[in-house]
Specification:
Rossmann fold; alpha/beta; 340 residues; 7-stranded mixed beta sheet; globular; binds beta-D-glucopyranose
């Protein structure tokens, strides 16, 4: 079957090729695979690891698919997605169902690290890693994976912030790509006043939720926030956001910025305000199983509250062989269509 493969570490090696992969579990016919910044980094040779003993890695970790055969508690025709990160098999976090907090770093990730991804017609998946998706979410199925990461980040932010009596009334989201938009939706659903800052001139989805949309150049005029979520993948924005936290404020970094650079941080903000005002900065990656289930139900709530908004976020659909267009696309989520 055809698959989108790369040779990790080799920029420009992405191509469509015939693969034969033996996998146990539930057979799933892939409908669509979303493309994100991590896929771009892998195709640029900056990230990704092939399965042990192999040179190539099948890309794709944001999947929506259909179960092909009854079994393992699933019925033919069920709509599903699947988790990305899998246990290292030997640390307490993985043993407790939290490979998102793996302590050895020896985890596997579908389409990213030592485990083939979903950008192919058929996969076999461990039933324990499958997540049921209602048919109403078919059009936005590729958003479940990024949404799970967002749900996880906000869950951690509220656990960290919750160590002190406080309320989250006002939040700043930097970046209005897929992650920034989903975080904005989730916070607005919870009734939080949100300012979303981005370089782009506007975002109809963000505005539909009632969030305020501003240019990142205006950050210093916006006052202080109980929560900041950096989704742009810009370490300079993280540094700038540190000054914008209110008392007991929490800042979460969700966007990766792999540039080799030095970022200036205001010394008194870090050395004085962070201490005297109990502020926190933390990073968040991936999601555990419960976050996936929560992502499915939260996306459904977002869809009902702002009809059409998330649907418009999946802005480009192209067949597998046009993967270059999907990787280059910057106007929202791009998806590769594997079957109808
Ligand atoms: C994925 C995560 C993954 C991370 C690091 C992100 O793009 O959404 O599931 O853990 O990359 O590999």
């Amino acid at each position: 079957m055809n698959a989108l493969v790369v040779e990790p570490g080799h920029a420009g090696s992405a191509c469509i090729t015939d693969v034969s992969i033996r996998e146990e579990g539930v057979p799933v016919r892939v409908l669509e695979v979303g493309v994100c910044g991590t896929d771009r980094e892998i195709t640029h040779g900056l990230f990704g690891v092939a399965p042990d003993g192999e040179d190539r890695l099948v890309l794709g970790h944001e999947m929506i698919g259909v179960v092909e055969r009854d079994g393992h508690g699933f019925a033919r025709g069920d709509l599903v997605t699947a988790t990305v990160r899998r246990s290292c098999g030997r640390c307490p976090a993985c043993a407790q169902g939290s490979p998102d907090g793996c302590l050895t770093g020896d985890y596997l990730e579908r389409g990213i690290t030592r485990l083939h991804g979903f950008a192919r017609e058929l996969v076999g998946e461990d039933p324990a890693q499958l997540v049921a998706v209602p048919f109403e979410l078919r059009e936005i199925g590729v958003l479940v994976e990024p949404a799970a990461d967002c749900v996880r980040a906000l869950r951690h932010a509220s656990a960290i912030g919750g160590r002190l009596p406080r309320e989250v009334r006002r939040a700043l989201v930097t970046g209005a790509g897929t992650i920034g938009t989903i975080v904005t939706c989730l916070l607005r659903l919870d009734g939080v006043e949100v300012v979303t800052a981005s370089l782009e001139p506007s975002s109809p989805v963000v505005e539909a939720t009632g969030a305020e949309y501003v240019a990142t150049t205006r950050l210093s005029e916006l006052g202080r926030f109980d929560l900041v979520v950096e989704c742009a993948g810009d370490a300079h924005l993280t540094a700038a956001a540190l000054r914008l936290l209110d008392r007991s404020g929490v800042a979460c970094i969700l966007g990766i910025d792999g540039r080799d650079q030095t970022v200036p941080v205001d010394g008194r903000t870090l050395g004085v305000d962070f201490v005297l005002e109990n502020r926190v900065l933390f990073g968040s990656v991936n999601a555990r199983r419960g976050d996936w289930d929560a992502a499915v139900s939260t996306l459904d709530s977002v869809r009902r509250r702002w009809p059409g908004a998330l649907e418009s976020l999946v802005a480009l659909r192209v067949p597998l062989d046009r993967f270059d267009e999907a990787l280059a696309f910057r106007g929202g989520k791009a998806a590769l269509v594997l079957s109808e």
